[in-house]
Amino acid sequence: xxxxxxxxxxxxxxxxxxxxxxxxxxxxxxxxxxxxxxxxxxxxxxxxxxxxxxxxxxxxxxxxxxxxxxxxxxxxxxxxxxxxxxxxxxxxxxxxxxxxxxxxxxxxxxxxxxxxxxxxxxxxxxxxxxxxxxxxxxxxxxxxxxxxxxxxxxxxxxxxxxxxxxxxxxxxxxxxxxxxxxxxxxxxxxxxxxxxxxxxxxxxxxxxxxxxxxxxxxxxxxxxxxxxxxxxxxxxxxxxxxxxxxxxxxxxxxxxxxxxxxxxxxxxxxxxxxxxxxxxxxxxxxxxxxxxxxxxxxxxxxxxxxxxxxxxxxxxxxxxxxxxxxxxxxxxxxxxxxxxxxxxxxxxxxxxxxxxxxxxxx
Amino acid sequence: xxxxxxxxxxxxxxxxxxxxxxxxxxxxxxxxxxxxxxxxxxxxxxxxxxxxxxxxxxxxxxxxxxxxxxxxxxxxxxxxxxxxxxxxxxxxxxxxxxxxxxxxxxxxxxxxxxxxxxxxxxxxxxxxxxxxxxxxxxxxxxxxxxxxxxxxxxxxxxxxxxxxxxxxxxxxxxxxxxxxxxxxxxxxxxxxxxxxxxxxxxxxxxxxxxxxxxxxxxxxxxxxxxxxxxxxxxxxxxxxxxxxxxxxxxxxxxxxxxxxxxxxxxxxxxxxxxxxxxxxxxxxxxxxxxxxxxxxxxxxxxxxxxxxxxxxxxxxxxxxxxxxxxxxxxxxxxxxxxxxxxxxxxxxxxxxxxxxxxxxxx
Lengths: 362, 362
Description:
The structure is a homodimer. The first copy, chain A, is of the alpha/beta class. Chain A has a single domain, classed as TIM Barrel (Alpha-Beta Barrel), CATH 3.20.20.210. Helices cover 45% and strands 12% of the residues of chain A. The interface between A and B is medium-sized, with 35 and 35 residues.
């Protein structure tokens, strides 16, 4: 046994009988330790593709659901009941910490986050205050309950990364081209720094709340950073993501860092301080291994669209991901992006079992 | 003078005094010949960002505008009047040839192409007939008029590539994830082949019409192919794009091949037979040079969002693109994607002149 038992002072990751969560395949793979099978979870496993989710959410707006501990707990647990996944992902939204510090925003069905007053000047930036744990007491409560309910299954906390949060705040909503955000980043470095600095503080505080309440790992989602060229990433994004990842590194939980379309950025996202670099489906995992410096595990990367093909195809593609994943120092199986809304949950159930079997036989 | 004058039997690219279009910086750069300055054009230079375009299009639906020679000519010429660009791009839409062979479709403002009956089975595929030049007589007429009007400025014809056309037909409209298209591609190779084969024939016919009428270069747009992983591209997309590019290779006009988010595919898109590989802004041109086999020119790749930054930033970024472009055997300056709708045309005018001056001084 390479990881000591009870090494956390506050014991927040707890023990179940003699098993600590440090010994679970998911946490071990994140730490690049040997595992009995490749661990599996799915981005957006808790959400739109599950009928029981759609029932629970029926009349409840997204941000209200994200603020109710009972719903957070229920929705986080739903996929764990269906699938033999190796981790649960905390049900929330990347906009939750911004809402919690008083940003006027709504999440509109079919649209996404819409911000009342987009931030485009220094006055706007200065209105962004820091996040206190008491601003998100519902998160603490839900995480604590979940850790008890989940038992031997690790809970992944998460937050949006500063660039992606900045994009929503500057554009005022979802954006295809992020032109206002980039114009600020390219042309107003002073303002950009001030904005990113504040978002960094908020992100750190939000992740700490989750880890302090018992989350076993943290994923920093930089959903839209794939639209940024490598030089710009290095100059204008990496310093902030690094500060987040370093700050939560003190908490001694594995840190996963993921964005879509980040083939050009994988090495830099590793440099930013991730323990696990998430890879979308465009870059085969054995190629991702070449792009990321040693000392990192990888997460990914089945194309979520594959799940719409016949099972034989799903199986063949999943096997390919498992095999390529073995070239990494550690591998967490996932999709290359979130579960698509029309995905058949039964295929995800079958896929989870298949990855366990296939990797267990290797 | 390295290119012979009058070398085309039908003389369709004509001469203006003693100048043939083969001697223009744009055509020479495509052919990797020395140029007095880096040639410039902008994807979507004819379109949404110009007030005169919005006036002309005011009450006229997109597909109607694309079928009226007077409007095609006017809209294609509008940016040429404003900017000192080195090429004009034929005003059309990638859906035009599909409409011309009887596919029931509309282009809805703010949405994009919407297909009446999405194609998802062999019966649907078999309804796709070939394109005859008489189906697009308005294209022939408009190209002929334009070639006369443009004089020394080359006209670029274009078409959507088979994968991107297939995506619209299978999904029934624009799609974020292309899941139905990919499910077909991954899981129904027989049906996929039949569909792609027919789209290849249509694309070849549509490009030939434009070259036969006098277009000096052809761009094959595979807008959405960046969502496909390299192995799948090689297996399920490249053979068809290659057949298009080889077929139009007989016409002896430079062939440009472009898609967004294609960092992983640049080498393969060159292999498909392009003379010029278009690069989006995520991959610096000197890195693209390393990914594309020798014997190709590159096109690109200023981030269109840069145009929203202060002029000093635009200039610095454009200079960087010009310099990196000099590592390629030939370089056509362009944006890394289409002109964004809110772009200030005056910035494009200034940018064109700057690239000419900067590259002319080198």
